[in-house]
Amino acid sequence: MSNLLLFPIIIPLFFATILMIFPKRLKFQRIIAAIAAGTTLIAALFLLAKVNADGVQAVTLGSWPAPFGISMVSDPLSALLVVTTSIITLFVVFYSFPTIGVKREQSYYYPAVIFLMVGVNGAFTTGDIFNLFVFVEVLLMASYTLIVHGGEKPQLRESIKYLLVNIISSALFVAAVAFLYSVTGTLNMADLAVKIPQIEETGILTVIAVMFLMVFGFKAAIFPLYFWLPGSYYSPPIPILALFGALLTKVGVYAIMRTYTLFFTMDIAFTHELLGIIAILTILAGCVGALAYFDVKKIIIYNIIIAVGVILFGIAQLNQPGVDGSIFYLLHDMLIKASLFFLVGIVAVLFGTSDLRKMGGLIKTYPFLGWTYLVAAFGLAGIPPLSGFPGKLLIVQGGFEGPQFWGSIVILATSLIVLLSAVRIFIYAFWGEPVETVPLKKSVFNQMFIPTVILVAITVVFGVGAELFMPFISGAGEVLLNPSIYIDAVLKE
Amino acid sequence: MRTNDVMLQTATKVVTFIILMFAVHIFFAGHYTPGGGFVGGLLTTSAIVLLMLAFDIETVKKILPLNYVTMTAVGLLLALATASASIIFDVPFFTHAYDYFELPLFGKTSLHSALLFDIGVYLVVVGVTMTIIQTIGEDE
Question: How far is B45 from chain A (nearest CA, A)?
């Protein structure tokens, strides 16, 4: 099956179109959405097994020869990301049943979620930089729908900001792609990796590399381009927020990862040092935000920015522990952010507010929720043996082996701030004098809580069983550090 | 306020059909020369929009009782199904098939699977643009 790697894109696309035809049938919408995410997950797992067994998979659409047609490439990194994306979408669909509201469910909510998955999976799988732009547009279209979905006043206000930022960055994206094409004459990533080292004038390529860093930086929310993120992510309801927080910025991070390991390696001393410095500034900026707010959603949102910085710092080192650590931390962060948003979503529903100062004493009425949150918070901060630990350890090790050892020290120090910001929610919401909670039916609570617990359990397994997953991670790291594997798989003929 | 739109309405009744015919022409020209499902779809939409300007949305809804969102979905399905046929034959996705046939009236004609894909594109373009225009144009 040469087309196996396309299944995680085709399956959700098919189901999303089916969902579009019958928007008003509630049960149908829910079941088909769950089936869509579930079958995509199965296809993604098959793909991962195949990539693990037979090496990098590549197919060039329309039977054209490789640098001319659009190549789709599935290496271990993209297969792992596709699996994680499918898991998160599946749980977001389950979590949406009790939380999103019937009105939204009947106005194309599920098609938008599934279309978002199409875009994200596609962006992770494509091997052509212009096609990457196309898939980013697909996921942006879906995210525009989701961010205004319901049309509440703050949503409308923030969606204008979100639209403007993304349209400007998309315009820059096309411009950067055009520059790259005019210099190299190709847009196939594997072909770029062959042609770029042959070009002697690295100056112009460095400029293009920084342009791409800006473009992807807008999506990934790096310093100083993250200004749009806290406001825009704050306005939509929790399931959408979890989906955005777990997936959208990660596409930008993945794009930086891919381009800065595969072909923008002509002037590492400049570009990667710049990336490292920006990564550290991103972490610091995120820390300031995470401590400054008394709002549970805002605190976790600023933690997204911190994580983006940590992952990019690992990539900037461009050595084996740094890159492996980044991949591990990227997967961990997608899972843990989704579960944390689920948890604070439940807390916010219980208190009827997301303001920490109006909360307290939840541990007496919902003890299991409290301890689950604590586990997730420790996982976020990277306390061993939870899932944040192995990734961060490797990234810090990578930093100490490279020239930017001071960055590793910053990461270690800011881990404490991350812990503080997450535990602060625990202290305010779960300890202290009990505050009256909104009465919630047991069945509704369970519908929200069960997917959350399973997702937290997955992150725990990912952390405790890190040894099990390490072969996949180091396999992905190997392809990133040796572009020749990727190039050979695409341009084999 | 009612303006006198007899001229517009009379002209529209003729012009709409000319535009629609031209849309069909552009659609079929698209395989080897400029044109195709996207442009054909836009032209068709422009014909419908002209009808809307000359008459009103209610009249057009009566003439064309279509759900444009469903139309978009059907178009997407058609395009996806055409492209997915390559999976059954185990060739890379989007690989198209074609052959030459002797048809009455047309003579020797080449038939492409890409045509089915283009019909899908056409339906998507008409569906999406009409949904956008209707949503902006109609009152609460």
Answer: 21
Q: What are phi and psi of B93, to 5 degrees?
A: -50, 145
Token representation of residue A297: 């959603």
For residue A1, the tally of other CB atoms under 10 A from its CB is 13
Angle between helices A466-481 and A483-490 (to 10 degrees): 70
CB of A213 closer than 8 Å to CB of A256: yes
> What are the tens digits of pLDDT across the range A7-59?
999 999 999 999 999 989 999 999 999 999 999 999 999 999 999 999 899 99
pTM for the full predicted model: 0.93
Residues from chain A contacting residue B92 (CB–CB below 8 Å): 2-3, 59-63, 69
Distance of CA B122 to the CA centre of its chain: 4
Write out chain B residues lying below 8 Å of A137, CB-based.
none
**What would the mean pLDDT of B2-11 be, rounded to a whole number?**
82
Which of B67, B68, B93 to probe the A interface (max A CBs under 10 A)? B93
In angstroms, the CA A146 to CA A100 distance is: 11
- Rounded-to-integer distance, Cα A95 and Cα A77, Å: 27
Residue ranges in chain A modelled with pLDDT below 70 = 1, 493
Share of chain A above pLDDT 90, in %: 75
d(CA A333, CA A418): 13
Asked whether the beta carbons of residue B94 and residue A62 sit closer than 8 angstroms, the reply is: yes
Using alpha carbons, list the distances in angstroms from residue A209 to A131, A181, A212: 18, 13, 5
Q: Roughly what angle, to the nearest 10 degrees, separates helices A483-490 and A249-262? A: 90
Total count of residues recorded for chain A: 493
Chain B residues near any Cβ of chain A (below 8 Å)? 69-70, 72-74, 76-77, 80, 84, 86-87, 90-96
Closest C-alpha to A422, from A293, A310, A290: A290
**Please, what is the Cα angle at B70 between A72 and B117, to 5 degrees?**
40
Inform me whether the C-beta atom of residue A163 falls under 8 Å from chain B C-beta atoms.
no
> Which two three-digit tokens encode residue A315?
């990539």
**Contact criterion met (CB below 8 Å) for A8 and A89:** no
